[in-house]
Structure formats: structure tokens, C-alpha cells
Amino acid sequence: MSWTRFRRGIVVMALTLGASAGAVAAGQPGSAEQGSSGQSGAGDCIAHHPNVQNNIWYAQGCTGHDEPELDPVSSLAGSAQDLTWTAVLPSDGTVPVSSVGPTFWWGGTVTDPNPHALFGQAFLEVQFYPDAVVSSCNSAGGFNVSYAPDKFTVCTPVWQVSSKSSAENAAFNAELYDGSSSQPLVMNAGDTIRVHFFVGSATDGWHINITDLTTGHSGTVVLNSKYGPLLPAFSQQKIGNALGWGIVNDTPNSFVWEIGHTSPFTTPAAQFCLPGQTSCDSYDAAHWLGFSPLQIKSVTFANGSTANKWAAVSDFGGTAEVNQYCSSYGGPYCSYPWYAFNGTDSAFTYGADYPGTQFDYDQDGQFSTTPLCGGPFGPDSTYCDTVLTPTP
Hints:
Helix content is 3%, strand content 35%. By secondary structure, it is mostly beta strands. The protein has one domain (68-388). Strands 4, 5, 7, 8, 9, 10, 11, 12, 19, 21 and 26 form an 11-stranded mixed beta sheet that branches.
């Protein structure tokens, strides 16, 4: 089964807090999100959520949405340049993993040598596609996949914003291949993987090496755009070393499960969606509990040290978004998924309280609901990172 990109048309869903659920507008600079209508054959495109106070808009064919993130924190010099995540991939159950959204990713802020790049920065997303095998990763940041239960493959879009047009587009996008082959690195549900970000030669871009520790297969992507290498923008993995055109005051590198999209393998396919819509499984706790969760086991930095604390933030305000679209909070399709620490598996999970949960950090209350932190767009322009306590 293959699927195609839904061109956004462009319909824009107004997601400013306090706006009505039905508010829509034509796709123009300053638009926050895009809906979908029509089809083309070029693949879906899920971009990074920008701070729309600077009238940033998505290039045609792309959307962004909720990007609730988990941030390891460290003051170690080089911790934002050389870090390794270890995780166990989730597994389909009574519900497929892809039902809650078409991608989760590990990513970070990079320098962008494009002379028109806003703040000279771009943002990398190492996008994992559940229940999917990639057939191509296109230069616009999109991806084409075929349905493959309990399989995972990867594209690596890097998102930039033009200071000339305020349009967000892709500076780079590459498929993760298996070794030196031209075939995708296909990983399996339940496999333990390692995602290593590091700097190689001074003339190369940031390296992303992904190893499936269960099968022994691996692949590497090097970030090098037509303007030159894309490199980590910060040294320290500290809160406040944030993407300049982003909407959260976070760490340079994070894990995110992209929510607010339907599955690419259902009807409607790969469509932007909102809390309260029965097609929007992202906001339904029962769907998250219907499969075995992703387990984020650890992050280590170049010298082998680990995070001294962890934090979480949502770029749409967590419960504030649900309350905007649902008449009451907590029912079917009207809850916001959260990060938790599972004591049984010694790992962070995302979604709901799975069996073995030890700390759930006030569940959805772990996400700031209003943008009260600073940045280039003003003192109250970004959502603040919430430090998760206790630290496991």
C-alpha cells in the first residue's frame, strides 16, 4: 500500500489560544497551521513548528503541528554536539503505532550557511516512520512510504526559514540507507536502536549514525546542503539554547512525537487534525495504550556522562489546546499525551501511563499552557521548558 501527499490547498487552521474551533483563513504569511485537501504524488511533508509572530509560513505541501518534546539537560561543553540516544522501538498491538501520528523524531538546532536563513539557523528532524518503509525522501522535505506493519524507516529533513520571504522549507533531506547500499535501513518493532549525533571532519556537516543493536545493521547521514555543512549550533545542552525562530524555550536537542496528524494508512490519510475529532487518535489515551510504547533508555554525551535532569515542553500549550477544541477535558479524543518514566523498563515513555509507570510528572500538567518565556520575538513569545522531577 502506498500513499501520496495531500497538498494543503491551502487551508489554515487558526490555533491561537482563544480562537474558535472553526476559524480558518487563506494560506498566507502569518498562518499557524495548514489543513489538507486534494492530492498529488509527491509524498507527505511534516515541517517544524515555527514561531508565527514573525509571520513565518509553511511552503506549499507541508504542515506542522504539535511537537511535544523531551529534553535531556547538561552543562557539559560539547554535550549538544556529540550525544547518543538509546531506545527500544514501539510495537503494534490492538492498535498500530502509526495510528497516533505518522512520525516521531530526534533532532536539533543546526547552523545554516544559506545567506538568507533566518538567524543563520535551521532545525534537523531525524524522522522515524512507524509501520512504514520509505521509498523516497524528497528535496522539499517530504517522504513517500509503503505500509509495512512493525517496520520503521527514516528520512532526515532539515528545516530553514528564509529571511526574505518568511517561508519555511527544507535545506536538506536524505534517506537513511542500510550501510553503503541504496536500500533503506529497515528496523523492527522491539529492536533496540542507538542514534548518535557527532561532528566528523571540519568540512563535513553533522553526522547522524543509527545502529540497530538487535540486528547489527546501521546507516549514516551527513548534513551537507548546497550552501555547505550544517553543524550543531550550540555547545551545551542547556535550556535556553533554543532555535531562534522556534516557539519553545528548550534545549538544542530533543525527542518529539509529532501528534495532530492522522495515520498515513487510514481514512483520511496523513491529515492535520485537532482534539475532539474522532479521526484524531493522537488525543485519545486508549489508542496510545493499544500498543507497546517507545522506550527511551538513555542519553550519553561525548565523555560518557548522562543528563543531569530532563525537561518537557509542548509548542501548542498541551491542555490549553485540548480545552480550546473540546467541551470537556479527559474524555475520548480529548486528552493530551504525556511523558512518563517506566520503572519496570528503566525508560521514558510517551502517550499515557503504561504498566510499570513510576513517575508521570503530573501527566499533561507537565506542559506549560501559555508562552511566558523569551526569545528574539519578545519576553512572552515562547513556551517554557518544565523540568521533570524527580530525576530517575
